[in-house]
Each structure stands twice: as structure tokens, then as C-alpha cells.
Design brief:
about 140 residues, 2 strands, about 50% helix, globular
């Protein structure tokens, strides 16, 4: 499965990859290593470990260290919402944007854009909370029995 850009990009790029990872964990019914998950979602294992760490910190997955270690779901798929995943992977350092001095008008514009984007993200998060991983999997023919 490829996580290639298909035209809709809301939130961090890690969001789609995290959803894919959780779906693959759910489908496996057991533990998967970061390398196995990365292969399934067409990502690098190091990046996948960072994503999985965010999901582990949020209590969505559990990690087991060691040679036979990996990740396993900590919650049932009907309890994991897309909103929860979004929140888990959206935490972390915010990349610094280049500061541009546009004067008072620019500062007011930036403030208003931030207000609009904050509200858009809040509404998107409320919407995402309506869907569980089970809902998503039930919509995909590949995962139907």
C-alpha cells in the first residue's frame, strides 16, 4: 500500500501514515515491527518509529522492546478515533517559519490567519472524532471478510 499524496492534505503528513499503521496492526491481529509496518505503508522504519512513539505516548499502541519486539494495538479498533490519532501525531516541535517583517498590517493579517486556521483545525478534529479505525476498515473492500 502506498501513502502517496492523493490531493487532500489536512494536518501533518504523519496523520495518514499513522492511520495506515494502525489499520495494518489491526489487520495483522498481533505484533508488528516498525520495519514491517514501514514496508506496508511505504515509509522509512526510522520515521515509522517516531510516528509509533507518538501513538504509544497517546496510549493507542503498546511497544515491546527487544529482538522480538514491535507494536501492538492497546485499544480496540472501535475505540480508536481518527481525531485521537490526529491529536497524537500533531504534537511535537513546530517547525520555525521564516520571520517576515510586514509591519502592523502584516501582524494583523497573521493573527487573523492564525484564528481562521485554528478554527478550521478545531472543526476538522471534531469531524475526525466521529470515525473509528473500525469504521474506516469497514469502508474498504480489502478489509471486508
Amino acid at each position: 500500500m502506498s501513502s502517496v499524496n492523493r490531493g487532500v492534505n489536512i494536518g501533518p503528513p504523519r496523520f495518514k501514515i499513522a492511520v495506515h499503521a494502525i489499520v495494518w496492526l489491526a489487520n495483522s491481529g498481533g505484533m508488528l515491527s516498525s520495519a514491517m509496518i514501514a514496508e506496508q505503508v511505504d515509509s522509512h522504519a526510522t520515521f515509522m518509529r517516531r510516528v509509533m512513539q507518538s501513538l504509544s505516548s497517546a496510549g493507542i499502541v503498546e511497544s515491546k522492546g527487544g529482538r522480538e519486539g514491535g507494536y501492538i494495538l492497546k485499544k480496540a479498533i472501535d475505540l480508536i478515533t481518527l481525531g485521537e490519532i490526529y491529536t497524537a501525531v500533531n504534537k511535537g516541535p513546530i517547525e520555525q517559519e521564516m520571520a517576515v517583517d510586514c509591519g502592523e498590517a502584516g501582524e494583523q493579517l497573521d493573527l487573523e490567519i492564525e484564528r481562521i486556521l485554528f478554527e478550521a483545525e478545531r472543526q476538522a478534529l471534531d469531524y475526525l472524532k466521529q470515525f473509528t479505525i473500525e469504521d474506516v476498515m469497514n469502508r474498504i473492500d480489502f478489509f471486508k471478510d
